[in-house]
Amino acid sequence: MEQPVSLQAGTFLLSVLLGCGLGFVEIVLRAPRRLMPRLSWLMDLLLGIAITYGVLYALLVIDGGRLKFFDAAGILLGAWLFLKTLGRLLFPLFLSLFRAAGMLLRLLASPVTKILIFLRQLAKKYFSTWRKWGTIL
Q1: Does the N-terminal or the C-terminal CB of the chain have fewer CB atoms within 10 Å?
Q2: Of 46, 74, 44, nearest to 59 (Cα)?
Q3: What pLDDT was estimated at residue 24?
Q4: Which of 97, 59, 55 is nearest to 78 (CA)?
Q5: Which residues are CB-contacts of 79 (< 8 A; sequence separation ≥ 6)?
Q6: 93, 95, 99, 100: CA torsion to nearest 10
């Protein structure tokens, strides 16, 4: 049974919107990947989970279990359009937001790190000779 063209156009537009959403997720995850390269594997994992969920959502909910070529093309087109238009504008914004959040966390954590450094020096000074105490007795 064939779908009417209006229904196909609607599912195509939903696929394009889904692609735009996945492009937005990629932009949001690209900023921490740029700032913390050691966590890029985690950002890639989260992006993979989002893409898998998005495609399964398109497959099961939007199309009722039938993934068509124009759905996949719509997802790719939506992601490409978002990354080439709004993504270029939003990436510096998210990069600066994540930098500001990192500076705030460092500022809030600085007393804790100073206390830990002091405790480590204290422990090194007083508890470094505990083995000698045991051998003296």
Answers
A1: N
A2: 74
A3: 93
A4: 55
A5: 19, 20, 22, 23, 26
A6: 10
Report d(CA 95, CA 88) in Å as an integer: 11
Distance CA 34, CA 76 (A): 23
Cα 126 from Cα 66, distance rounded (Å): 70
Average pLDDT estimate for 10-34: 90
Q: What is the mean pLDDT of residues 57-69?
A: 77
Query: By the 8 A CB rule, do 35 and 100 touch?
Result: no
Residue 64 DSSP class: S
Nearest-5° angle of CA 25, CA 42, CA 35? 75
Range scoring the smallest mean pLDDT among 14-18, 25-29, 101-105, 129-133: 129-133
User: How many C-beta atoms lie closer than 10 Å to residue 36's C-beta?
Assistant: 13
Angle CA 59–19–27, to nearest 5: 135
Residue 19 contacts residue 72 (beta carbons within 8 Å): no
What's the predicted TM-score (pTM) here?
0.73
